[in-house]
Automatic annotation (TrEMBL):
Family per similarity comment: Belongs to the Maf family. YceF subfamily.
Annotated source species: Pseudoalteromonas arctica A 37-1-2
Listed EC numbers: 3.6.1.-
Role summary: Nucleoside triphosphate pyrophosphatase that hydrolyzes 7-methyl-GTP (m(7)GTP). May have a dual role in cell division arrest and in preventing the incorporation of modified nucleotides into cellular nucleic acids.
Subcellular localization, as worded in the UniProt entry: Cytoplasm
Catalyzed reaction equations: N(7)-methyl-GTP + H2O = N(7)-methyl-GMP + diphosphate + H(+)
Protein name (database record): 7-methyl-GTP pyrophosphatase
């Protein structure tokens, strides 16, 4: 293949999404500070972090296309991070009950050799059912989504929390917008379909 692909993520969810392309890729952990800067909007945050993660590939590889991605949940103009424990997850899901949350997923493809990068931000809306305390607690115990933005795993039992999903690419909710990624790779000369088996 013209450029080796490199996923700037240690997330097993992003790795399994990228495997759908059926192309070989390397991975590394970009290890960047994900704190928001003062006055940074959610869109600016995910864009900057995607670019930071992708360009961190410079430290590990001397050629290839690095793919960086970052995601935040936004509710009432507030950025919601990963809950890290049950108490915070319950609090987040109580907040979301009967409401719509926007997930913003930043995506950057970075050419290590030329320094060229292409970045986009993909929004996705999740409308939650009205959830009881018992449902929220049972869900948290069953799936322990404490390392997931928004306190759920949409690819698992989390799907039962929702009224409806709306957006261009359901993969973006899991953490990697594959439709946009295939378009960005095409701009770097990689057609995912014709690259099969090469």
């Amino acid at each position: 293949m013209k450029h080796p692909l490199i996923l700037a993520s240690s997330s097993p969810f992003r790795q399994s999404l990228l495997q759908k392309f059926n192309l070989p890729f390397d991975t590394f952990s970009p290890d960047v500070d994900e704190s928001a800067l003062e006055c940074e909007t959610p869109i600016e945050l995910v864009k900057r972090l995607s670019e930071l993660k992708a360009s961190a590939a410079n430290k590990h590889f001397n050629k290839g296309l690095a793919i960086g991605s970052d995601q935040v949940a936004v509710f009432n103009n507030q950025i919601l991070g990963k809950p890290h424990n049950k108490q915070n997850a319950v609090k987040q899901l109580n907040l979301f009950s009967g409401n719509t949350v926007t997930f913003l997923t930043g995506l950057c493809v970075y050419d290590i050799v030329t320094g060229t990068k292409k970045t986009c931000v993909e929004p996705f809306n999740v409308s939650f059912k009205i959830l009881s305390d018992a449902q929220i607690s049972a869900y948290c115990d069953a799936e322990q989504p404490y390392n997931c933005a928004g306190s759920f795993k949409s690819e698992g039992l989390g799907i039962c929390l929702f009224e409806k999903l709306s957006g261009d690419d359901p993969n973006s909710l899991i953490g990697l917008p594959l439709i946009k990624l295939s378009q960005l790779l095409a701009e770097f000369g990689i057609d995912v379909l014709t690259a099969q088996g090469k």
